[in-house]
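User: Please fill in residues for this 216-position structure.
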């Protein structure tokens, strides 16, 4: 190819950083079967927004909504009580037809009742959940706290996403709040690990080379 090994190594490294190649220790470097979808963790955006921003077509499969009761963990997040009623919305999100995310959203039924909205209206595929909150429920999500951990797909999640049990997943649990800091939505999202990369911009420390003078 007429280039040095150093240049070739740097080019391969850049392609890996861009999500076009994947390196597997002990096996080699391979071309990804689909582009890596990259999202900044400092910006709260829906899976559909993330997929659309990468020039891919978002879709929804296996969408269901049902009443349920809260576990102790879920109740603690939402500042509610264990066994309180909750509305569960579950969906598989697709990118150009590929299953990439399984989402489970917990919505306090009091929000639906206050707006006179029926549970089945959550199945409207033409409106994102955040848009639904703003337009139909009159609730604006201001900020959220996310907990992120790696995991392996169990049998149920694997079946939903059409992948094998034990497939690597990135799980994001997020609690969203309104302008009054009240919890209004608890979500758990299972992302297929080889389809997504999440990044965050970190500032500092911007240390100066000058010695620090003692305070006087």
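Assistant: Residues filled in for all 216 positions:
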């Amino acid at each position: 190819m007429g280039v040095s090994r150093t240049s070739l190594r740097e080019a391969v490294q850049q392609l890996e950083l861009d999500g076009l190649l994947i390196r597997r220790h002990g096996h080699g470097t391979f071309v990804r079967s689909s582009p890596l979808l990259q999202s900044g963790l400092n910006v709260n955006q829906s899976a559909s927004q993330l997929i659309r921003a990468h020039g891919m077509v978002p879709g929804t499969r296996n969408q269901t909504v049902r009443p349920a009761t809260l576990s102790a963990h879920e109740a603690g997040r939402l500042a509610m009580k264990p066994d309180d009623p909750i509305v569960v919305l579950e969906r598989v999100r697709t990118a150009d037809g590929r299953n990439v995310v399984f989402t489970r959203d917990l919505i306090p039924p009091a929000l639906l009742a206050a707006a006179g909205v029926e549970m089945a209206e959550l199945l409207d595929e033409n409106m994102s959940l955040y848009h639904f909150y703003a337009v139909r429920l009159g609730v604006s999500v201001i900020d959220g706290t996310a907990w992120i951990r790696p995991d392996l797909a169990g049998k149920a999640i694997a079946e939903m996403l059409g992948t094998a049990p034990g497939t690597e997943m990135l799980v994001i649990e997020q609690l969203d709040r309104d302008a009054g800091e009240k919890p209004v939505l608890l979500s758990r999202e299972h992302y297929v690990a080889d389809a997504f990369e999440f990044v965050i911009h970190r500032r500092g420390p911007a240390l100066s080379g000058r010695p620090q003078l003692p305070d006087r």
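For context: The mean pLDDT is 84.
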